[in-house]
Amino acid sequence: MSIEHREFRASVRKLAQTKIAPHAADVDDKERFPSESWAALCSNDLPGLAHPESLGGSGADLLSQVIAVEEVAASCASSALVMLVNWAGTSTVLSQGSNELKQLVVPGVASGSAGAAWCMTEPRVGSDLSAIATTAVQDGSDWILNGQKRFISNAPWADWYAVLAKTGDKSLGVFIVHKDDDGVSFGAPEKKMGMRGSPTADVVLDGCRLPAVRVVNDPYRGFRYISAELNVSRALIAAQALGIAQGAFDAAVSYTTNRDQFGQPISRFQLLRGMVADMAVKIESARSLLYDAVHLIQDGDPAARAKVAMAKLLCSDNAMSVATDALQLHGGYGYVRDYPVERMMRDAKITQIYEGTNQIQRLLIAKSVYGK
């Protein structure tokens, strides 16, 4: 890692610990949008990391994005999710959209004045995107969308929604919907186990008419477009999981250093030290695998697909393990909300599920091993 990346990590960590962490418990408890965190992120130009300078962003490389997500997630996973979903929601616009569409959507998202979201999942569709029921039918130069998207992060807070819709028997397109478009409505906020500061709701499309400019390139090649973006989004979710693990680990080390039993800090107990050592190995091994995957993605290496699946799998499984052990090391105090590890364990669970369940990641990895 370069000196610049190390300095960037230090700056984001300081921001997260001073401006984001103090509000994380209240955000979780009240299940509210992390407004203080978002203001801090915007004031430090972090929402624009994934966007080019020509569109108001900073054009940072993927490793910088991963580092930012890690450090923010270590303090508040919900805040990190809001930020990375904004990037995911604009990814196909950046890679495939027309200049007019980019100018319409990206500058506001890059500045943080507008939000974005990505809409794939449906009530009966999770991993099997071929079963998508939302339709987009052409009417002159316009397109009319009908359907329901489920578990949409950043809804209804976001302004822009990249919607994957069926355009033919075996074709999908990506369409950019604005929350104020006619025919757009939102379901009730989901009551979630974790990530409670990240707004999540259904997005309902009822005869939503869009002009041609809102179509991302070829409306029959949307599956190809989103497949090309999954490497990056999975790397970011892996980074979020890794950040949660690091935050839980740091909390456990601090607690065990300052908690005395039998006349000495419990950090001196041998069984406890063995647990902490295992946690440290899980974090560092996951980080190494993730950064390796990031370099492959940045190099355009075809091996990146399998490697990032490995990273997403390992980072999220290890995050769940580390957060659970961190709670255990707090004893009874870990089970109450006075300490952050309880929240971190709940937050960690979803990283094993979204952006492709870890069972799906294992199938992708096995396919790369066997070649089919």
From TrEMBL:
Residues 221-369 form the Acyl-CoA dehydrogenase/oxidase C-terminal domain. It comes from the Bacteria. Keywords: FAD, Flavoprotein, Oxidoreductase. SUPFAM superfamilies: Acyl-CoA dehydrogenase C-terminal domain-like (SSF47203), Acyl-CoA dehydrogenase NM domain-like (SSF56645). InterPro entries: Acyl-CoA_DH_CS, Acyl-CoA_Oxase/DH_mid-dom, Acyl-CoA_Oxase/DH_mid-dom_sf, AcylCo_DH-like_C, AcylCo_DH/oxidase_C, AcylCoA_DH/ox_N, AcylCoA_DH/ox_N_sf, AcylCoA_DH/oxidase_NM_dom_sf. Residues 4-112 form the Acyl-CoA dehydrogenase/oxidase N-terminal domain. Its cofactor is FAD. GO terms for molecular function: acyl-CoA dehydrogenase activity; flavin adenine dinucleotide binding. Residues 118-208 form the Acyl-CoA oxidase/dehydrogenase middle domain. The keyword Cell membrane does not apply. Belongs to the acyl-CoA dehydrogenase family. PANTHER family: ACYL-COA DEHYDROGENASE (PTHR43884), ISOVALERYL-COA DEHYDROGENASE, MITOCHONDRIAL-RELATED (PTHR43884:SF12). This is Acyl-CoA dehydrogenase. It comes from Rhodococcus koreensis.
